[in-house]
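Priority: low. Protein: Beta-lactamase class A. Input follows.
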Amino acid sequence: MARPERPCDYLVETARARERWERIRAPRVPRHSASEGAENFSGSFRALGKIAYSGSRVSASVVDLNSGKTLVAIDDRIVLPTASIGKVLLLIEVSARMTARDVSGFGILDKTAEDVVVGAGLWQQLQVPTLPVADLAALVGATSDNLATNILLRHVGLHAVRARTESLGLVRTALLDLVRDRRGPDEAPQLSVGSTAELSWLFGALARNEIVDPVTSQRVLGWLSQNSDLSLVASAFGLDPLSHRGFDHETLLINKTGIDSGVRSEAGALRGSGRAVAYAVSVQFNDENLGSRMRVLEALRMVGVDLLEYVHQPRRESVPRHP
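Result:
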């Protein structure tokens, strides 16, 4: 039977509820493990450990979406800058308002000079002066559009995004501010921050359709499925950056990256032929030269290699033993 074209329909095979706080708050130690005692993610540990010993701050979390088992936990509770990953929280708020038929979830918004910033995005290059709310959210999902982010954020209000974040139970992850070209002493030092434990939970919950409700979750996943940035962890997956909404060699990805000076972060959900995972990796480093940056990128790609290998391993079904 052919698989449906709609993205994210097969990221997980179950939708059973899990006690999130027990998982987040349970004692953790750095480890790499898998079912049947097989070792996995050793390459990731070596690569991330190497840049950590060189002075970078490293955090990582990988969770099997079907079993709920934590596969990787490396300082996954510490709070690090996550740059544009915090825009996912804005998309959740916008999607929730659309589901609730709130008038603020619809309408057409104007491009304003005060919200224009350099960097990511297409709208600042386009002639069209107004766009619907849903189109702006699609631009944020596809290109991490900074102008669209600022317009949406002023529209719904940062306070509303923070309230939504708290209602999800996230205490170490937040969108802190608008996107700015420069940050002064009276402004938040980062666009967003987060812990990888919470970010991997967030993407797992989105994949299970548990963020607000299934319609809200699926809409956010649809926006994120258009993400064209596969330069970090996802660089190892062999996908077309401009067209990967469906299965490609039995691989399906939903992800969001965060890139800033000295910050490289990615969170996502990945399904392969045998398994599915939610993951998050953040690195804060001294971006003093190209060599430093390339070492971080190589480490993140190594995480992707291990993730790809894991999700394409067949799951071993338990066989009942007869007396």
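Residues 290-311 form the longest helix (22 residues). DSSP finds nine helices and ten strands in the chain.
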